[in-house]
């Protein structure tokens, strides 16, 4: 099972929006509505930001939104803030109790 | 509050063994799938193993099949990962994670496993 493809980096100025793509196949992203997104600050554990493609856990700001079209999922961070600077990973269920993660995207707030 | 606390990571020689533990609290442990995820230094996340609520179903990534065993003790709210025949490429921070909606909803702080001579 190959990792999902994410751009290595993305950036934006404070207040702007940034969108991160996550491309898989019909066996993972395209086949299930179980795409989730994680934020990871350096030296810290990942934190769930989006689950089931577009749902936000309690406590996650509505500046974070998710969507999916075909085999590609996307995470949009609106109104960028300094604390949004982190690594972001997508993940998708891939059947048979297997999950695959994305390659990761480093978001820089300029 | 959901808490997951890993322990057991250390420096081990290639070919050696290690047993990781994850102590869970703040939720009904026996009601959730549990997972081990690892992150090699400077690299991305990788699911290592999954275990069903009652331990009856398990999944392993191909690279650890036959070497690692995931288990759980619902009476003690604990998750385990027995790692045998360790290789340099197993060096990583190992995280314990809890499922909620086919995801990794909660994570522990991680425990570092270093395989080196």
Description of the structure:
The complex is a heterodimer of chains A (110) and B (117). Chain A has 110 residues and is mainly β. Chain A is built from no helices and nine strands. Chain A has strands spanning 9-12, 18-23, 35-40, 47-50, 64-69, 72-77, 86-93, 99-101, 105-109. In chain A, strands 1, 3, 4, 7, 8 and 9 form a six-stranded mixed sheet that branches. Chain A has a three-stranded antiparallel sheet with strand order 2-6-5, with no helix packed on it. Chain A is globular. Chain B is 0% helix and 49% strand. Chains A and B meet through strand 7 and strand 8 of A and strand 5 and strand 10 of B.
Which structural traits does this protein have?
heterodimer, A: 110 residues, 6-stranded mixed beta sheet, 9 strands, B: 117 residues, mainly beta, 7-stranded mixed beta sheet, 4-stranded antiparallel beta sheet, 49% strand
Compute the average pLDDT of chain B.
Answer: 97
Beta content of chain A comes to 35-45%
Separation, N- and C-terminal Cα atoms of chain A: 35 Å
For the CA atoms, what is the radius of gyration of chain B? Answer: 13 Å
Secondary structure layout:
The complex is a heterodimer of chains A (110) and B (117).
Chain A: E1 9-12, E2 18-23, E3 35-40, E4 47-50, E5 64-69, E6 72-77, E7 86-93, E8 99-101, E9 105-109
Parallel strand pairs in A: 1-9
Antiparallel strand pairs in A: 2-6, 3-4, 3-7, 5-6, 7-8, 7-9
Chain B: E1 3-7, E2 11-12, E3 18-25, E4 34-39, E5 45-51, E6 58-60, E7 68-73, E8 78-83, E9 92-98, E10 106-107, E11 111-115
Parallel strand pairs in B: 2-11
Antiparallel strand pairs in B: 1-3, 3-8, 4-5, 4-9, 5-6, 7-8, 9-10, 9-11
């Amino acid at each position: 099972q190959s990792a999902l493809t994410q751009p290595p980096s993305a950036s934006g100025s404070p207040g702007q929006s940034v969108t991160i793509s996550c491309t898989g196949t019909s066996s993972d992203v395209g086949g299930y509505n179980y795409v989730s997104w994680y934020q990871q600050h350096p030296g810290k554990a990942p934190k769930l930001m989006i689950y089931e493609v577009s749902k936000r856990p309690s406590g996650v700001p509505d500046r974070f939104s998710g969507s999916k079209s075909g085999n590609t999922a996307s995470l949009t961070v609106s109104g960028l803030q300094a604390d949004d600077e982190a690594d972001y990973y997508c993940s998708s269920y891939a059947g048979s109790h297997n999950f695959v993660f994305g390659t990761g995207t480093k978001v820089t707030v300029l | 509050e959901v808490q997951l606390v890993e322990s057991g990571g250390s420096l081990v020689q290639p070919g050696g063994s290690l047993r990781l533990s994850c102590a869970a609290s703040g939720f009904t442990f026996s009601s959730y799938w549990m997972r081990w995820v690892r992150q090699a230094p400077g690299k991305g996340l990788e699911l290592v193993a999954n275990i069903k609520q009652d331990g009856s179903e398990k999944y392993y990534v191909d690279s650890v099949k036959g070497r690692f065993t995931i288990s759980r003790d619902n009476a003690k709210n604990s998750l385990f990962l027995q790692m045998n025949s360790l290789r340099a490429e197993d060096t990583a921070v190992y995280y314990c994670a809890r499922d909620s909606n086919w995801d990794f909803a909660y994570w522990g702080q991680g425990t570092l496993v270093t395989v080196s001579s």
